Amino acid sequence: MTIVSSQEIAQFRSQLSTNAQAMIALDAIEDCEGDLEDAAIALAIRAGQQPQRENSEWLDALARKCRAAICQREFRQDLENGFYSSLVRYLEETPLLPPILATPVVMYVIHQGVSNFCEPLDAQFE
């Protein structure tokens, strides 16, 4: 279970205030008391998907599916510096996932630690 605080949600709200999809996702995360996995499942169902795994496994698999995009140098540097909007916007525009799930995926990656999350790709390029 990955729980985000109300302060983390507020930080995302301030950076993504003009992004309607992100605001809907953040409302769902708040409604789930910060539980990213529960919120992601609810948002996925709302987007017409039918997750077949346990909540925590499903969100992790979705994030891993987006790993190559997330770990691009410019996005990775933004995340490490606390800037999320460009990556959220990019993920919303890709066919990798429904746009409504971009925000929970980015929050999940931040909670995993950007370096830890990107480490499998780093090892591949060394």
Describe the structure.
This protein is mainly α and 126 residues long. It has one domain (6-125). Helices cover 70% and strands 0% of the residues. The protein contains 9 helices and no strands. The chain has helices at 6-15, 20-31, 36-46, 55-65, 67-70, 73-80, 85-93, 102-112, 114-125. Helix 2 packs across helix 3 (36-46), helix 4 packs across helix 8 (102-112) and helix 8 (102-112) crosses helix 9. The longest helix is centred in the N-terminal third of the chain and has 12 residues, at 20-31.
**Rg over C-alpha atoms, rounded to the nearest angstrom:** 13 Å
* Mean pLDDT level: 90
Strand content: under 5%
Biggest sheet layout: none
Q: Please give the number of β-strands.
A: 0
Which geometry do the CA atoms define?
globular
Brief write-up:
With 126 residues, this protein is mostly helical. Helix content is 70%, strand content 0%. It has helices at residues 6-15, 20-31, 36-46, 55-65, 67-70, 73-80, 85-93, 102-112, 114-125.
Question: How are the SSEs placed, and which strands pair?
Answer:
Layout lengths: L5 H10 L4 H12 L4 H11 L8 H11 L1 H4 L2 H8 L4 H9 L8 H11 L1 H12 L1
Question: Which features characterize this protein?
Answer:
126 residues, mainly alpha, 9 helices, 70% helix, 0% strand, globular
